[in-house]
Amino acid sequence: MFDIKKQEIQWGGKTLTLETGRVARQADGAVLATLGETVVLCAVTAARSVKDGQDFFPLTVHYQEKYSAAGRIPGGFFKRERGATEKETLVSRLIDRPIRPLFPEGFYNEINVIAQVLSYDGENEPDILAMVAASAALTISGVPFMGPVGAARVGYKDGEYILNPTLDQVKEGELDLVVAGTHDAVLMVESEAKELSEEVMLGAVMFAHRESQKVIEAIIRLAEESAKEPWELPALDNEGELKAKVKELVGDKLAEAYKLTKKAERQAAIAAAKQPIQQHFADADAETRLKAGKIAKKLEAEVVRTAILKEGRRIDGRDTKTVRPIDAQVHFLPRTHGSALFTRGETQSIVSTTLGTADAEQMVDGLNGVSYERFMLHYNFPPYSVGEVGRFGAPGRREVGHGKLAWRALNPVLPSKEEFPYTIRVLSDITESNGSSSMATVCGGSLSLMDAGVPLKRPVSGIAMGLILEGKEFAVISDILGDEDHLGDMDFKVAGTSEGITSLQMDIKIAGITEEIMEVALSQAKEGRAHILGEMAKALDHTRTELSSHAPRIETMTVPKDKIRDVIGTGGKVIREIVATTGAKVDIEDDGTVKISSSDPEKIAAARKWIEGITQEAEVGKIYDGKVVNLVDFGAFVNFMGGKDGLVHVSEIKNERVAKVSDVLSEGQAVKVKVLEIDPRGKVRLSMRVVDQETGAELEDTRPPREPREGGDRPRGEREGRGPRRDGDRGPRRDRGDRGPRRERGENGKDEGPEPEFAPAFLKRDDD
């Protein structure tokens, strides 16, 4: 029934299995990939025809994590997987980026690549497995795919590279790097690092590329057994005559247009240069007009690439290493906790930082269970930033990806939660774009965080590098423009501090780049980053020592674990009262750590004092602030230290005699009291009369001590003021005989004497 083909290899100390022929047999290609107990199914389908007039390649990649893979039920009302999570979006992009350049030019058939996590062991991350499965499924599908692609994750700890590290190894290590490439070259890099050197990062990339060769070889063996017949591609038309005509019409004009250094002027000149094409081919069929437009685009690329390779001159007049002018400002927005306006050439970002308390953390529900993220970075790219009219709304895949890249760049330099117990949100709004807006977000984000008072280890800058490659001749260019990105061969982004790299991302539009090119790019990027850091320092070169007056202050204290229950109260009654009364937020953790937050220091102090009162023991002789909570005839009960009550006896209210307690005190009145005594049962006796009620200072006790009674102790039976008891007060004592003879009790406790004459019949003994 099944024609199963399978390949197994030992990879990073574990068995990687690639299998086809058992499931999803109606797809063009389907592979079940297993590593440990993590299983991913990837199925590929491709349309057999192209829509009329279509001039782009509609490749769509979907990565989905099934909660059942980890033995979990989704949260929420619907209890099923719904829209893509941030991680699913990022992994979809991770798969898309290395495979897209490997489809031939002119192939416009729609392709779906769907990868689903079916089993997850909590140890082997499914993203790398999904990339491998997608590459294998495309290779055996028969579609024109110039793969296969191999992929690997690399960690770094104690000077050693780790292939496909576990989650714990990544957290404990200094690097989380993902590399994808073909047999000959690297195609894609994504990483987060803890200020590692260029040499270590390059070594990690090449280590991953070498290790991924084993996967490529396994995919090739699987394809040899199970690949479908390759598709026949239509022969490309000979466009020599058409290209010559287009070049004659617009070639010189395009060259002149690209000499204009300002983006708006250049774009207007390019549009004007292409007008003769529309006029000349106005009567031609749609396909010819489409081809003429594509040829014009290729001519643009030739103009730009030739000028860079042959003359070292770029679109805006710079050489290959110069960074555009930078203007950085901080505290740009008055009410935010921290803000920056970062402008580099025609790329600009307004970045703001907001500080919050623990309850503002983002809850993340995934295969590993529910976790909480204290650092968030959100990136927005409105259409006006490039002078266009377009969709405006929820962020798309591009926005999510750019935001995550900036997050990775800044995350390694943030203080720990213990050092800085705030939830942090960075918001980047791109207001102009002509070149890497994600790196502008990194630079502006670093300044914004420092402006907010977040103690970064060091400032972070970022730069985007480009590549022009023709045969063996190449040029690496720093701080690329948008057109250089579109018409070039590489988008290589590097972010880091003065001490090392924190993030590295690379995308290639060709078949891959070599180690030599990467080494040059990393070295040139280091120079650019250092220059940008210097420009940023002109605006702010250190973290502010004071938080914004609008930011919440958080103070931390610790209470004994056995007192946590007292602070929270039954059903949270006490902690709610503290919050409602003081106006401060209070969060208490299982280990006794209490975080008190408010933008008003007085509210924090009030909450801290209240909690200290609940958890600390009263001291005899010490003076406390209190509040009258109840009046009784013999005194008043006063609450002090937040959670303790004591009695002020009527004699301890004032030195003078108090006839009625309510004449002097009222419920809710603030008073100052001194602890006189705490009895063994914990009852507290307080005094007001020995404390100055205005200053809280202790007063001298001027009340004279009681005089001892004359004659010492009163004689027994003597009553004060009444004299000795008189014998005749109660009359003569009655004689026992008045009650009849006393009955004797026997050994068994029963009466044995004669029954009295007045005893009722039912009490008389049977022998009567």
Automatic annotation (TrEMBL):
SMART domains to which the protein is assigned, alphabetical: KH, S1
A Pfam short name: S1
Annotated GO MF terms: 3'-5'-RNA exonuclease activity; magnesium ion binding; polyribonucleotide nucleotidyltransferase activity; RNA binding
Names of required cofactors: Mg(2+)
CDD domains: KH-I_PNPase, RNase_PH_PNPase_1, RNase_PH_PNPase_2, S1_PNPase
UniProt keyword terms in alphabetical order: Cytoplasm, Magnesium, Metal-binding, Nucleotidyltransferase, RNA-binding, Transferase
Binding of Mg(2+), residues: D485, D491
Record's GO cellular component terms: cytosol
Domain of life: Bacteria
Primary enzyme class: transferase
Location of region: Disordered: 689-768
Subcellular location: Cytoplasm
Catalytic activity: RNA(n+1) + phosphate = RNA(n) + a ribonucleoside 5'-diphosphate
Function as written in the Swiss-Prot or TrEMBL entry: Involved in mRNA degradation. Catalyzes the phosphorolysis of single-stranded polyribonucleotides processively in the 3'- to 5'-direction.
Name of the protein described by the UniProt record: Polyribonucleotide nucleotidyltransferase
Lineage: Bacteria, Pseudomonadati, Pseudomonadota, Alphaproteobacteria, Sphingomonadales
